[in-house]
Design brief:
This is Diphosphomevalonate decarboxylase. By secondary structure, the chain is an alpha+beta fold. The chain has nine helices and 17 strands. Helix content is 33%, strand content 21%. The strands form four sheets. A six-stranded mixed beta sheet has the order 8-7-9-6-1-17. The chain is globular. Bound molecules: adenosine-5'-triphosphate and the ligand C[C@@](O)(CCOP(=O)(O)OP(=O)(O)O)CC(=O)O.
Length: 401
C-alpha cells in the first residue's frame, strides 16, 4: 500500500524522533560495531516539534546509490552509512533466500537506492541530528524492503544514540556483552502515554558547531579518564536501576535528581579527559545555577537540566511548572528585541513572577544569552508517512524543488 510504483520505482517516506539521554552513553568498547562501555536511557521527543524525514527509493534506472542531506548531495561512501545499507540489504537477502512468499511484493535488493533526508530543526544547533537521522534511514529502508524484527542493532551502527530513537517513550540501550553486538539493543521501558505530565524545554544557547565531536571526544575519554571507567563499572549500573524505577513510578523528584547528577558527571568525565574537553559555556553554567536556585526557592525539585556534547540545555519538568519556569528564563535571559520568535513548539502562556522569586534567584540578567526555546513533550517512535505528498524525492528519483 505504501509503494507508489512509478517507472519501476518503489518509494517510502518515514519520520523519526530525537532522543535526549538521562543516563548518558559516553565511550565504546568496540569502535567498529559501536558497542558501549555502559547502558544508557533516554526520553524520545515528540515529532510535532523535532524530527527527521527520510525518503528512500529504489529503481532499476538508478545507476548508483546516492544521498541528499538537507538539500545538498552528501557522500554515500561514509563508512557508517555503508554499514547500515549493507546490514539492511543482508537482512532483505536473508528473507528472500528463506523462501518467504511475501517477499515478491517488495523490491529486489540488487537495485540502487536514492536517499533524501531533511531535519526540521537546525542541524548546526547541536541537537542530536545523527540519532534521528540514522534511526529514520534504517526504519525507512526496512519498510521499503518489508523487513521486521530487531532494527535497533542496525541503527546503532550508524550512531550509537540512534538505536534509542527506534522507539517512543522511555527507552534503554542495553550495553550487552557479546562481541558480535547482537545483544546491544534498544528496548522500550514505557510508552509515551505513560507520563503525560512530563514536558521538555530545549534552551538553544549557541548554534555553533561543537569543537569536539562525540565520536572522537569519547575515544579520548576512554583512553585517558579514570573517572569514566569508574562511572561505567560502578555508577551507571546502579543509576540505570534507580532511573527505571523513577520512571515506572512517575517519581519526578528522583527522575530529576538522577538526570542532573548524570549530566554533571558526564561533563566531569569530559574535564577528566586529557586534554580536557569543554562542552558547557558560561551560559550553560548560569542555567545550571538558575535551576538549582529555582528549585530551592520552591523547596522541591520542579525542573531538571541535562547537557549533551554542546552548550544547549534540555530541561525536563512537569506541565504545571512550564509557564513559570519559561517566564523565569525570559526574565534572566531577555531575548533580543528583533531576534525573531523566542518560543517555538507547544504554546506557553505568559505569567507574572513574584518579586520574591526574582530576588531569590538573584543573578544578573544576560541579554540574548539564550537564542530561543523549543517547547515539546515525550513522543512516539518512527512513523511511516503515507501518501505521495510526503515524498522528498520526485518521480524522477531526484530531490523535489
Ligand atoms: N537526516 C539525516 N540522515 C542521515 N544522516 C544524518 C542526518 N542528519 C545528520 N546525519 C549525520 O549525522 C552527522 C552529524 O552528527 P554529529 O554527531 O556531528 O552531530 P549531532 O548528531 O547533532 O550531535 P550528537 O550525535 O553528538 O548528539 C551528519 O554529518 C550526518 O552524517
Ligand atoms: C552525549 C551523548 O549525546 C553522546 C551521543 O553520542 P553519539 O551517539 O553521537 O556517538 P557515536 O556513537 O560515536 O555516533 C550522550 C547520549 O546521547 O547518550
Amino acid at each position: 500500500p505504501f509503494m507508489a510504483e512509478d517507472r519501476n520505482m518503489a518509494v517510502v517516506t518515514c519520520s523519526a524522533p530525537v532522543n535526549i539521554a538521562v543516563i548518558k552513553y559516553w565511550g565504546k568498547r568496540d569502535e567498529e560495531a559501536i558497542l558501549p562501555i555502559n547502558s544508557s536511557l533516554s526520553v524520545t521527543l515528540h515529532q510535532d516539534q523535532l524530527k527527521t524525514t527520510t525518503t528512500v527509493a529504489v529503481s532499476r534506472d538508478f545507476k548508483e546509490d546516492r544521498i541528499w542531506l538537507n538539500g545538498t548531495e552528501d557522500n554515500i561512501t561514509h563508512p557508517r552509512l555503508q554499514t547500515c545499507l549493507r546490514e539492511i540489504r543482508r537482512l532483505a537477502r536473508k528473507r528472500r533466500n528463506s523462501g518467504d512468499e511475501n517477499c515478491n511484493t517488495f523490491p529486489t535488493v540488487s537495485y540502487k537506492v536514492h536517499i533524501c533526508s531533511a531535519n526540521n530543526f537546525p542541524t548546526a544547533a547541536g541537537l542530536a541530528s545523527s540519532a534521528a537521522g540514522y534511526a529514520c534511514l534504517v526504519y525507512a529502508l526496512a519498510k521499503l524492503y518489508g523487513l521486521e524484527g530487531e532494527l535497533s542493532e542496525i541503527a546503532r551502527q550508524g550512531s550509537g544514540s540512534a538505536c534509542r530513537s527506534m522507539y517512543g517513550g522511555f527507552v534503554q540501550w542495553v550495553m550487552g556483552e557479546k562481541t558480535d553486538g547482537s545483544d546491544s539493543i534498544a528496548q522500550q521501558i514505557k510508552p509515551e502515554s505513560h507520563w503525560p505530565e512530563l514536558r521538555v524545554l530545549i534552551l538553544v544557547v549557541s548554534a555553533e558547531r561543537k569543537p569536539v565531536g562525540s565520536t572522537t571526544g569519547m575515544q579520548t575519554s576512554v583512553k585517558t579518564s579514570p573517572l569514566l571507567k569508574h562511572r561505567a563499572e560502578k555508577i551507571v549500573p546502579e543509576r540505570m536501576k534507580e532511573m527505571t524505577e523513577a520512571i515506572q513510578c512517575r517519581d519526578f523528584e528522583s527522575f530529576a535528581q538522577i538526570t542532573m547528577k548524570e549530566s554533571n558527571q558526564f561533563h566531569a568525565t569530559c574535564l577528566d579527559t586529557f586534554p580536557p574537553i569543554f562542552y558547557l559555556n558560561n551560559i550553560s553554567r548560569r542555567i545550571i545555577n538558575l535551576v538549582h536556585k529555582y528549585n530551592s526557592h520552591h523547596g522541591e525539585t520542579r525542573v531538571a537540566y541535562t547537557f549533551d556534547a554542546g552548550p544547549n540545555a534540555v530541561i525536563y519538568t512537569l506541565h504545571q511548572h512550564v509557564e513559570e519556569f519559561v517566564e523565569v528564563v525570559k526574565h534572566f535571559f531577555p531575548p533580543e528585541e528583533n531576534g525573531g520568535q523566542f518560543l517555538k513548539g507547544l504554546p506557553v502562556k505568559s505569567v507574572s513572577l513574584s518579586e520574591q522569586l526574582k530576588s531569590s534567584i538573584q543573578t544578573d540578567p544576560v541579554k540574548a544569552g539564550i537564542q530561543y526555546i523549543i517547547s515539546t513533550k515525550v513522543g512516539p517512535g518512527p512513523q511511516l508517512m503515507e501518501g505521495p505528498n510526503h515524498h522528498l524525492l520526485g518521480k524522477d528519483g531526484l530531490p523535489k524543488q
